[in-house]
Design goal:
By secondary structure, this protein is an alpha+beta fold. 57% of the residues lie in helices and 17% in strands.
Length: 483
């Protein structure tokens, strides 16, 4: 039975709270009620005892002032009984009742010897008696009857204790009504408390179920600054993190798919061409030595392209995984650019472009890897030359605010504004550039950006379609500490 009750309670937060609050409230009020009843009973009983003792002494004093003993005493006792709520007995030294306020029915009756012994010794006695003529238990107070300082007997006052019990019973009824009213208030309070706790928890449960189904946009609203509110905030932070992770996963998945699609496209074109040429040579369709040599040259260029593509991919993967280490030492950036321009002179001359280099005299050294710097500027200058015909390329090297600034400007075909932000993406190629100006791997600028970042530098690009493009690279100046 107990296990079933506990299982039933554990199925609901409201039930547990209600049962706990009811139990604590009932036990608390019951203990308080019992204590009040006991304390009230003791207090009222003690007060009545003290009052009865006082009245008994007054009776004794009244009797002593009566000159004619026998008849007057009986009348006096009867009169005192009428004007008080007590039943009064007067006893002689033998314990015989000689006068009673209730009439002659008790006259002649004998009192217990033990009680008379106490009275004759001058001791008061307080006890509860069950009198045959009374149906209710009586609180009795007995005091010695003095006459000229001599004990002639005893005086007993009786009072029903039903009044005390009635008062205590009224207190208990008040406590019961307080319990009933308190239970209603506790029930309403627990209902509200349970609602304020369980409602947001149900919202969290519903949101968790939706998140389990893939809805990472779900949030829970709760504005109270309590523990449940902190739980809701933590839950929302968790969902935001899950949403971010899911978006990053989708982004990585999209990048992976784009990478596979791009690399497949980049590999398919040269492989298809090489396969076609090899099949033509293998089938003997091309017998002219000059044509055969032409086919061999084309296949060699396609092989070079594939080799270049693989090398660029390996470089980019290493850069993104931070697996590239730089061989740093102080170099003058003008020297690196002169080497790059010298190596690109044949292709620049072929496009009939002119190149101009300007370098300020006060440009300091930078801490860099010269081979990687050559790779950076070779890509940028090569792109500028590739998309410019019968134009010019200007390279300007200056010092601006502790940074060496290199700007490479051409007056070529330019880049559309909506494509400018994407030129750093892997395999991204502007369509008009791809179709009209030859092909590339689409990885050069992505590698350039990674290498510039590796040198703690920055690179930006600005372009105007049909007017040209400017790439600006900034490297921090390397300054040695003063000795």
């Amino acid at each position: 039975m107990f296990k079933k009750l506990m299982r039933w309670l554990n199925q609901s937060l409201f039930r547990r709270l209600l049962f706990s609050f009811f139990t604590i409230f009932i036990l608390g009020i019951a203990l308080i009620g019992i204590q009040i009843s006991i304390s009230t009973t003791d207090y009222l009983t003690n007060q009545q005892r003290q009052e009865m003792l006082r009245q008994a002494r007054n009776v004794n004093a009244t009797i002593q002032s009566t000159e004619e003993r026998t008849a007057n005493i009986t009348q006096t006792i009867e009169n005192l009984g009428q004007f008080s709520s007590y039943n009064i007995w007067l006893m002689n030294e033998s314990g015989e009742i000689v006068a009673a306020s209730s009439g002659d029915m008790m006259i002649g009756e004998l009192i217990h010897d033990s009680l008379m012994e106490d009275l004759l010794r001058g001791q008061n006695s307080i006890q509860v008696m069950q009198i045959d003529e009374e149906e209710r238990p009586m609180l009795s107070v007995a005091v010695p009857w003095y006459d000229d300082d001599e004990i002639r007997g005893g005086i007993i006052l009786h009072s029903p204790i039903a009044g005390i019990k009635s008062t205590v019973r009224n207190i208990r009824e008040i406590v019961l009504w307080a319990i009933l009213g308190g239970l209603i208030i506790v029930g309403l309070s627990v209902s509200y408390l349970s609602w304020t706790i369980s409602k947001p928890l149900r919202r969290v449960e519903e949101a968790a179920n939706e998140i389990a189904l893939g809805n990472y946009q779900k949030r829970v609203s709760h504005h109270l600054p309590d523990e449940v509110g902190e739980l809701v905030k933590s839950f929302n932070r968790m969902t935001e993190k899950l949403d971010q992770i899911e978006k990053e996963r989708d982004s990585l998945e999209q990048k992976r798919n784009d990478f596979i699609a791009n690399i497949s496209h980049e590999l398919r074109t040269p492989l298809t061409a090489m396969k076609g040429f090899l099949e033509a040579l293998q089938d003997g369709l091309v017998k002219d030595p000059e044509s055969q040599q032409k086919y061999f040259n084309i296949m060699y260029r396609e092989t070079e392209y594939l080799n270049h593509l693989v090398n660029d991919l390996m470089d980019l993967i290493k850069l993104e995984k931070n697996e590239v280490s730089l061989d740093l030492y102080d170099i003058h950036i003008r020297e690196v650019i002169d080497v790059v321009v010298y190596n690109l002179k044949p292709s620049i001359k072929e496009k009939e472009n002119k190149i101009h280099i300007h370098c300020d005299k006060d440009v300091p050294l930078i801490l860099a890897d010269s081979l990687r710097l050559e790779q950076i500027f070779k890509n940028i200058i090569h792109n500028a030359n590739k998309f410019t015909e019968n134009g010019s390329i200007a390279i300007c090297i200056t010092l601006e605010q502790n940074e060496v600034l290199v700007s490479i400007t051409d007056n070529g075909i330019g880049i559309p504004s909506h494509d400018l932000a994407r030129i750093w993406d892997r395999f991204f190629k502007v369509d008009r550039v791809r179709t009209k100006k030859g092909r590339g791997t689409g990885l050069g600028l992505a590698i350039v950006k990674e290498l510039v970042n590796l040198h703690n530098g920055t690179i930006t690009a600005s372009s105007q379609l049909g007017e040209g493009t400017t790439f600006t690279v900034k490297f921090p100046v390397h300054r040695y500490p003063k000795l």
